[in-house]
Amino acid sequence: NPKNTRFSINFFTSIGLGGLTDDLREFLRTNPPPATPVEPVVPVKTEIKEDEDFKDRERMQ
User: Fold this and answer.
1) Which of 6, 13, 54, 61 could lock onto 18 through a cystine, CB 3.0 to 4.6 A?
2) Residue 57 pLDDT > 90
């Protein structure tokens, strides 16, 4: 997991053990981050329904 790998690199470097992170850095260089999945756009159908009370009021007038 690239996110966990970056965290590990930052942690070990901050406590003075950056030399341990060489393999992790190489892992990040050789494995590009995965593409962010894009959800398909689904058209939303909307229906406009007249209010029944409004229809009743129109009939009474």
Assistant:
1) 13
2) no
